[in-house]
Amino acid sequence: MFDIDLWREIFQSINKNRTRSLLSGFTVAFAILLFAILFGLANGLNNTFAEAFKDDAINNIVIWPGETTKAYKGLQAGRRIQFKNEDQEFIKKEFGDKVQFMTSRVMKNVTASFRNEKDDYTIRAIQPDNIYIEQNKVKEGRYINQLDNDNKTKVVIIGRLVEENLFSKTTAIGKYLNLSGIQYKVVGVYTDDGGDDEENMLYIPLSTAQQVYGNNDYIDMMYMTYNPEMDYNQAISFGNVLKRKLKERFSIARDDQRAIRVQNNAEGAKAVNLMSFGLGIIILVIGFGTLIAGIVGISNIMIFIVKERTKEIGIRKALGASPRSIVSIILIESILITAIAGYVGLLVGVGVLDLATPSLEAYFIKDPGVSNTLVIGATLTLVLAGTIAGYLPAKKASKIKPIIALRND
Amino acid sequence: MLKIEELHKSYPIGNSSLHVLKGINLSVESGEMVAIMGSSGSGKSTLLNIIGMLDNYDEGKYILDDVPIKDLTEKKAAIYRNKFLGFIFQSFNLINYKNAVENVALPLYYQGLKRKERIEKAMFHLGKVGLKEWATHLPSELSGGQKQRVAIARALAANPKLLLADEPTGALDTKTSYEIMEFIQKLNDEGKTILMVTHEEDIANMCKRIVRLKDGIILEDTFVEQVRASQYV
User: Fold this and answer.
1) Is residue A159 part of a domain?
2) CATH class of segment(s) B29-58+70-231
C-alpha cells in the first residue's frame, strides 16, 4: 500500500530538518566511502601479488643440470650432467599423470636479420606444450606444433616486440627471418603478460634446433607443470621425488646440491598463498571494522534523532497519532536517508578509486576495486542496522506517555 | 458528558510514592465551561492529563461520553483522543517545521481525511481564529497570541466533544490573554464544552464554574457569574 500522505510527511520532515538529515546521511555515506576505499586498496594489494606470478603457469617445475660436486659410485666430482630426449621420456613414464604439460628446451643466442633490420636475440627451441607453461598467447598465425617437431621444419614464432623491432614496415607472417645464417619462416606472433623480456624471444621446434645446432639429442632444461589437482604439499613432495629419481638415474650423490636443480613453484606458491590468506583476513577485519563503526554511528544518530523528536512525537500522539504511525514515520525516514546516503558513498568511493588507480600502481596497488555486490551488501547492512537501531528507540518513543513527551524542559 | 468517581493517582518517587489525586468526584455536563484551580502541586494538571488520556490513573472511574476510559491500549487511546478531545497547551506545542495551516490540518491527517479536504477544513478553522492570511507562516514567524490561536484552531479542527486547556494564557501578556479568553468564551457560547486549568483568578472568573483543588481533593466546586472578556478588550 502506497500512502502518499505518509511520504509527504516524511519528505517534509527531511526537508525541514536539513542539518539533521545531512549529518546522519554524512555518517552513512562516509562509512560506505571508507569501506569501498579500504576494501579496494586491499584488493589492489592482493592483485599485485597475483600479478607477480603471472608470467608462467603457477604450477611450474623447472629442471636444469649442472656439475657434480661430490665423487659418487666411482665417478669423479666435477662431471657435467647432460640431459637427453630419453630423460624426458623417463620422467613422463615414471610419473604419468602427475605431469600435466611438459617441454624440453634448447637455448641458443643468434643474430636475427630481416632486410636491413638486425638484432641479437635468444632462441628457445621447444615442444608444443610450451604454450601452456609460458602462458603465451598467439596473436597472429600459429604456435609451434607437433608436426614441426616431427618434420624438423625451419619455422619460427616471434614475440610481439621482435615483430615491432624487425617488421616495422611489413607483416611478419610468411616472411623468412635469417637467424645467424639460417633462414626460418615466421609462422606466428605471440604475446606474453610476463614483461618485455618474454616478448623478445624466438621460438623454434626443439628437434630442428637439435639437428641444426649439434646434430644430437641434447636438451638444456626441462619445464613442466604438475597436475593442478595436487595440493601444495603433494606437489612439493612430487618435486622432491622427481629430484631423487633423477639423481639415481645419473648416479649423483644424494646430498649433491649442484648437479641437478629442481625449482618447484609449489614451494613459493604455498608461501604466497599463506600471504594472500593473511591479506584476506586483514581485508575482512577492515571491512567489518568500518561496517561496525558505521553501525555504531547510525545507531547513535537514530537514538539522538528520536530524542530530539520526543516533543514532536508527544504532540502527534496528543492529536491522535497511533503508535504505529509514529514508528513508521521515524523508520521510513531513517531508511530513506541511509539508503540514499549509502548510494552516494558508494558512488564517491568507487569514483575516488577509479581516479586514484593510475597513481597507486607505484605503491604496489594494482586495479584497486570492489565488487558492486559487496558495496551494495554493505549498504544494505547499514540500512538494516539503521532500521534496527531506529526501531528500538522509535518503538520506545511511541510508547512514551504524551504527557512526558510534552513536559517543558 | 464527563463523569469521574473516586479517582486516585500516585507517582512513584524513588522507593516511596507521591499520592497526587486522593479521590476526585466530578461530573461535567455538555456546554459547561469549567476552570480547575489550585496551587502548584494540588494535582490540577494531573487531573487534566488524565481527562485528556495523556496519562492513566490507578483507581476509580472515568466515563467520557458514555465510554469508560480505563487501561486503554495506545492505539485505542489515540483513536479516542482524536475523536473526543482537543488540546490547548500553555506552550502552544506547534510543530515548528510545519506552517500554520499544516499544523491545524495535522489532527485531520490522523483522522484519515484526504489532503484537499484537510487543507480546506484547516483553512476554515484558521479563518475562524482570524489568521487566514498567516496560513503559510511558520510558528517562529508568529507572535505568542497568534501561536495560541493557531493551537486553538488545531484543537477545533477535529471537531472534538471536549476542549482541554492547560494554562492557555500562561505564556501570554494580560491583553493577549483576554483576547484568547474572549475567543474561548465565544467557542463556549457556540456550545463547546471547555475544561481549563489555570491559577489566575481573573481568568478563572471568565469561566462558568470553578473547581478548586488542594492536596489532591476537591476543596470547592462553585458555579460563578461569568465575566465577559470582551469588556476588557
Assistant:
1) yes
2) alpha beta
User: Chain A closest CA to B225's CA: distance in Å?
Assistant: 32
pLDDT at A1 over 50: no
Percent of chain A with pLDDT over 70: 93
* Whole-angstrom distance, CA of residue B121 vs CA of residue B109: 11
Query: A113: closest CA among A191, A173, A165, A169?
Result: A165
- A63-111 pLDDT per residue, tens: 999 999 988 888 888 899 999 999 999 999 989 889 999 999 999 999 9
Average pLDDT rounded to a whole number, residues B175-180: 91
Q: Which among B81, B83, B97 is the nearest to A17, CB-wise?
A: B97
Please count the structural domains in chain A: 2
Phi, psi of B207 (to 5 degrees): -90, 180
Residue A25 lies in a domain: yes
Residue A154: domain span: 82-249
In angstroms, the CA A403 to CA B51 distance is 12
- Which helix (H) or strand (E) covers residue B107, if one does? helix B100-110
What's the rounded mean pLDDT across residues B91-105?
Answer: 91
* Predicted confidence (pLDDT) per residue in A355-409, tens digit: 877 776 667 666 667 777 777 787 788 788 778 877 888 888 788 777 766 765 4
Say whether both A165 and A291 belong to one domain.
no
Give me the phi and psi of A41, to 5 degrees please.
-65, -45
In angstroms, the CA B191 to CA B30 distance is 8
Chain B: closest CA distance from residue A350 (Å):
36
Chain B residues 98-157 within an 8 A CB cutoff of chain A? 98, 102, 106-107, 109-111, 115, 154
Contact B89 A9 (CB under 8 A): no
Q: Across residues B208-213, what is the average pLDDT?
A: 94
CB-closest option in B55, B82, B90 to A319: B82
Residue A271 CA to its chain's centroid (Å): 16
Element (DSSP H or E) covering residue A108:
strand A99-114
pTM over 0.80: no
* A207 plus A323 within the same structural domain: no
**Strand, helix or coil for residue A186:** strand
Domain boundaries of chain B, sorted by first residue: 29-58+70-231
